[in-house]
Amino acid sequence: MTNRTFTMIKPDAMKNGHAGAILDKIIKSGFRIVALKQTKLTEEKAGEFYAVHKARPFYGELVEFMSSGVIIAAILEKDNAVADFRTLIGATDPSKADEGTIRKLFATSVGENAVHGSDSDENAKIEGDFFFSGLEQF
Ligand code: RTP
Ligand code: MG
After folding, report:
1. Does 15 score more than 80 pLDDT?
2. Which of 85, 88, 113, 138 is least crowded, fewest Cβ atoms below 10 Å from its Cβ?
């Protein structure tokens, strides 16, 4: 699965009406949509998804934010998907993100930063399977 990554359009970007523009940019950057859904995380589910950050000071805030509204979850395919997608979204803190990146264009703050992108092939698979059954991934 080295050619796949996982993304979420986070509640800030959904509320601010950026979902269409973000998906358009993703597709025009050469990613194929393997699976896609709109959903809403409970606090419990958001906590599970971000369990790796449990010890970080921003964990509570992150879980609250990620369960505060609807999101779009998607699996994406492209050569070098994980690294290329992280380049496309830009730095975690939008004030440090390069011009033209999704976070530079659409994020609100370091916490409310418009999109998620997997950080490894292994996590891309785990995160995609968190939201989609095998029958939904093609
Ligand atoms: P992501 O996992 O969402 O793609 O973001 P990332 O790899 O760029 O950043 P990561 O270190 O994995 O952090 C996960 C998410 O936690 C929130 N965060 N808040 N207040 C803060 O200092 C802070 N730092 C991180 C962000 O929503 C970040 O995307
Ligand atoms: Mg991360």
Report:
1. yes
2. 138
2 pLDDT more than 90: no
Q: Give the pTM.
A: 0.97
Among the CATH numbers 3.40.50.1820, 3.20.20.70, 3.40.50.720, 3.30.70.141, which is that of 4-133? 3.30.70.141
Q: Which residue's CA is the closest to the ligand 1 atom numbered 2?
A: 116
Full DSSP string of 71-119: EEEEEEE-TTHHHHHHHHH--SSGGGSPTTSHHHHH--SSSS-SEEE-S
Is 18 among the residues known to form the active site? no
Catalytic pick from 18, 25, 116, 125? 116
